[in-house]
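Appendix B, Record 12. Input sequence as logged:
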Amino acid sequence: MPIDYDNFSGKQMVRGFLALIVLIGCSLGFSFDAKAQLALDKIVIDFIPGSSNRQDVVVRNTWDETVYVDVEPAEILNPGEKTESRAPIRDPREAGLLISPVRLAINPGGSRRIRVVNIRDNFDSERIFRVRVRPVIGDVEAEVTGIKVLVGYDMLVMVRPNPMAPKLEHEIAGNTLTLRNTGNTNIMVGIANQCRAPDDCEEIAIGRLYAGNKIVAKLPLANTPVEFTARIGDEFRSYRLE
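Logged structural output:
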């Protein structure tokens, strides 16, 4: 099974971002407070044709103070390309994605749910969204100069087309592998392998290919097949490329 870099638990902070708030004091020393953390039970949501059109994300406050959270959804245009951009969602009906609530307060040790709803399922092409879950705090006074580290997340939300038509094309030239996603939905490859023997393999980091993406990877071994298991929605497919 490939590694999905967007699909680790909240504790591992994958795809997390750090908001650094500098506290000005009277000392030249620094102190760090890394306790101000949120934990999410999932950071990838995949709306597959025929599945439920809503999912809940549990947000836990692992700090000893109340945390206020902003939830900022955006559609990702040209995902995976150099021209990728983020378009904040102003009208959920037009975007087809509803997030509720977009602001919440979580007591120390407490948790709240964020509901993510796919309100349109008639898209001809795949839609990719990011939902930023960001803790915010007010002004804080400190006796020393310090940095308070607040950990937030950028959830990945995918709305698959119906029907899905995945297609992965490849070319190997010497030590170069080219993968093209010529289908209409994203394919998660993660890690590929080249093996001299069953217990002697080299790993090649690939990642996720959105529809239309191309990835070029250097191969550690020449004249050796490339093998991996790709995830497409809730389906896994094994590949052996030569």
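The domain at 168-241 is CATH 2.60.40 (Immunoglobulin-like).
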